[in-house]
Structures are given as C-alpha cells and as structure tokens.
Design a protein that fits this description.
Helices cover 18% and strands 42% of the residues. The chain is of the alpha+beta class and 183 residues long. Strands 1, 2, 5, 6 and 9 form a five-stranded antiparallel β-sheet that branches. Strands 13-12-11-10-14 form a five-stranded antiparallel β-sheet, with no helix packed on it. The chain has a two-stranded antiparallel sheet with strand order 3-4. Strand 12 and strand 13 form a beta hairpin.
C-alpha cells in the first residue's frame, strides 16, 4: 500500500464542472459512492443554490439559482482513490486548488454558503433610493416613468409616483417591474 500523498481528514472540496452539468455531476458522485462502497470516504456532493424571485409574464415565481455556475462541493476524505473517483466522474473538469493539489474549502466559507442556501424566504435585491426616477417595464403602467416615493424592502415593493392626467398618482409595484433610467 502506497502512502497517501493527501491529507485524508474529512473536508469540503470544490470541483469544476462543465456549466449546466452541476446537478448531473453531484448525482453521479452520489451514485458512484454507493456503487464502489465509498460511503466512509465520500460523504456528500451538493450544488449550492439559493431561492430568488423572478417575474415572468407578470407572475411572480420563486426559482432556485446556482450560486456558483460550474462548481460542485464534495465532502470527502482526500485520498488517491477518492481523488480518482471524483476526478473521473463525467462532467468534472478538475478540483479547485493550487497546482495539482486540491485545496479544502474553509469551514467558515462552507458555513456562509450553507447559510445562503438555507434561507427560507427568497431575497429581494432592491437597489433603488427614494426620489429616484425609474421606468416601469411590466404591468398595466408599462412605459411610464415615475419617482420612487416609498420602498418596502421586506415585501420587495416600491411605491412610484406616476404622472397621469396631469396629476401624480401613487402606484404600488414589485421591485422587478421597474428599471433605472439611463442618465
């Protein structure tokens, strides 16, 4: 038996995959682990995803978005054998690390990623300020411009003052229904 050239303590490693193959790679690694009895050396393979809100055809939808396109995280003990199994999984292009040596992802970083993945409520990314002029891109007021009078970051809503029939009218909109005007 040759001496293991890796530190075989349990750790998370990032692997590169072809873009769009992340889920297939994670599933393949999990299947291979069961097939070659590696459960004591390879523990988990995950594709970090977070919930986001998008509006399509005027309807709000919660979707899972990959946090890191083209990467899968694998929890394992790094040995020549486990390196070979993961590295030769279809869709894997390599381990993330320095030179040919895979580098473990820090526990702190894994905790941050897992926290981001575990958020129950999707995040609203409201990058607007009160008084800012925006263009409405969706809904019955599409094409109108207006000034933001209120921001509700928790609900992801904006109140926009739209000029209609010669007077300012407040319109409540989803933050995804407006875009900044190009100054």
């Amino acid at each position: 038996m040759t001496k293991n050239r890796y530190d075989d303590s349990r750790a998370w490693y990032a692997i590169n995959t072809y873009s769009g193959y992340e889920d297939k790679v994670a599933d393949s690694i999990k299947q291979r682990v069961n097939g070659v009895e590696m459960a004591d050396k390879i523990f988990d393979a995950i594709v970090p995803k977070e919930k986001q809100i998008e509006i399509k055809n005027g309807k709000r939808k919660v979707v899972d978005r990959k946090i890191f396109q083209g990467y899968v995280l694998v929890e394992m003990k790094l040995t020549d054998e486990t390196w070979y199994i993961v590295r030769n999984t279809p869709g894997v292009t390599g381990f993330v690390g320095t030179g040919s040596q895979p580098t473990p992802v820090s526990e702190k970083e894994i905790a941050k990623i897992k926290k981001r993945m575990g958020v129950e409520d999707p995040k609203y990314d409201i990058n607007y300020n009160e008084g800012e002029i925006v263009n409405i891109i969706d809904g019955p007021f599409k094409g109108f411009d207006g000034a933001i009078s209120e921001i509700d970051a928790i609900k992801g809503k904006l109140k926009v003052m739209v000029s209609m029939f010669g007077r300012e009218t407040p319109v409540e909109l989803d933050a995804l229904q407006v875009k900044k005007l190009n100054q």
